[in-house]
Amino acid sequence: MTKKILIVGLIICSFLITAACPVTAADEEMTLEDDQNDVLDFLKSEQQGIEVYTEDKPNIDILLIEYSKTGKEVTISIEVKGIIEDTGDIEDPESSGFVSYNVALYTSEGETYEIMYVNQQCTLNGEIEDISWDVDGSVITFTFDLESAADTYSSIEVYTTDLDYTKLEIFADDFADLEFVITVDAGGEYEGNVGESISFSASASEGTPPYNWSWDFDGDFNTDSYKQNPTWTFDTADTFTVFLFVEDSIGYTGSDSATVVISSSSNGGNGKDSDSPIFIFVALIVIIVIAGIAVLVYVIRR
């Protein structure tokens, strides 16, 4: 009888302990899916004038995004088709390229939390100490705190980039669960000559103006101009791809790219400069012939 009373007492105590220590449930949870094999090949797209996708970059092919919030703490996981790749150094100008995984979380309080992960380095709004991260095969997970526990999810943008300077290759994938979409036009195709100032013209619509403009002319993903319609000078003759990133007043973003063809000749590469020496030579011959005839006529008349 004593044993039965003891067992019943233990059971009651276990219920009381469970009731006193409730399980904390997440305030918010969601899972977002992205299409497979939708990694954009920027250079081929520019060359062919249409969007060209590749299956050869599973390391940045976004499949699944998981978001959860408990109190102030937020956890965001990105799953890719391949394996999370640690390549390059975005701060090293001599790096041959890099692979990056990026998140922009927009909240109900109008806050924007921007995450960038490149080769074992991770920042939240440019700060290292404010975020923790973990890589497990094809999944990378970020954990950080919001400014307030009352802040809630509004929308999210996830984008990945694989950039190789040596091969001049740029690949990217993105997923956006945005309330607004900013339509951006970088203009072009632009043409000019080495050492000549090229004028760029941009436009944007939708979202919430005013807009912040960010041009990248040399492909290093650093801002070269914050003007809407800047000028830029190229030092070598080649075909370049420039990028324009636009952010509206509440943090929503959009982007576009344009092609710039730079010629080494002062007349835009139409070949007339190469004919100039021949023209001068022919002119000299004509002058000599005319002078010879004039001398001959003068001698005959005498």
Task: Describe this protein with a few key phrases.
single chain; 302 residues; alpha+beta; Immunoglobulin-like; 2 domains; seven-stranded antiparallel sheet; five-stranded antiparallel sheet; 3 helices; 20 strands; 42% strand; disordered N terminus
Tell me the count of domains: 2
Our count of helices gives: 3
> Biggest sheet, strands in spatial order?
3-2-12-11-6-7-8
Q: Care to count the β-strands?
A: 20
Work out the radius of gyration: 31 Å
- Which class do the helix and strand fractions yield? alpha+beta
Strand content: 35-45%
Rough shape? Answer: globular
Q: What is the helix fraction of residues, given as a range? A: 10-25%
Unreliable stretches, pLDDT < 50, 5 or more residues?
3-23, 268-276, 295-302
Oligomer: single chain
Question: The biggest beta sheet, please?
Answer: 7 strands, antiparallel
In N-to-C order, the SSE pattern is: HEEHEEEEEEEEEEEEEEEEEEH
Distance between the termini: 156 Å
User: Mean of the pLDDT scores?
Assistant: 82
Outline of the structure:
This protein has 302 residues and is an alpha+beta fold. It contains three helices and 20 strands.
Give a verbal description of the structure:
19% of the residues lie in helices and 42% in strands. The protein is of the alpha+beta class.
